[in-house]
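Revision sheet: C-alpha cells.
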Amino acid sequence: QSEEFMATGGTDSVIHIWKDTTQEEVDRMHQEEARTLEQQQALDNYLLVKDYRNAVSLALSLDQPHRLRTIFQDVMMAAENRHGAESDDMPRADDAILGNAAIDKVVGTLSPEQLDRLLGYVRSWNTNGRFARVAQATLYCVLTQYSSETILALPSAKELIAALQPYSERHFSRLDGLLTGSFIVDYTLHAMDAVGSLDADRTDMDESY
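Predicted:
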C-alpha cells in the first residue's frame, strides 16, 4: 500500500485526496544546491583564467552583488598598478573604464533585466563611501554605452535615479573639497618655498655688508 497519497473525508461527504510531496521538495532543494555549487565553481574557474566576460555574466545571473563588486574592484586595482609601473611616455595597453575591455564590453551588452539588476547593485554600492569609486565607475560605464531612452525604459528607472543622484552629488562635492584642499596645500608649500628663498637672499645680502 502506497503512503504517497492520503484520503480524508468530512461531513459534507466529499473525499479529499492528498499527495505527500515532502520527498519531491527535498530532492528539488538538493538539485538546486548542486546546481548552485556547480555555478559557483564555474565562476571561480572563469576568474582563474581571467575570463571576465563570463564571470560578470554569471555573477549577475547568480545575483551576487558582493562578488561582482569584488571583481570590479580587483580588476580596476590591477589595471592601476599595471599603469603605474609603465613609463609615462608609453601608451597604455588598456584604458578601459572598469580596468578591462572585456568587462566594459559585457556591461555594454546586458539585457534590460540584467541592466536593471546591475544598476540596483550600483545604487547600493553608492550609499557607502568605501564603494563610491567602483559605483561611479560602473555607472559611468553604463551611461557611456546606453542611451537615456534605454535606461529610462527600465522597470526601476525612476527609483534608481532618485536614489543615485543625491549620493553621487555628495561624493562629487567631497572630491571637489579634497581637490580644493590639495590646491591650497600646493599653494602654501610654494609660498613657504618663496619665503624661504627670500629670507636666504636677505641673509646673503646682510653678510655681504
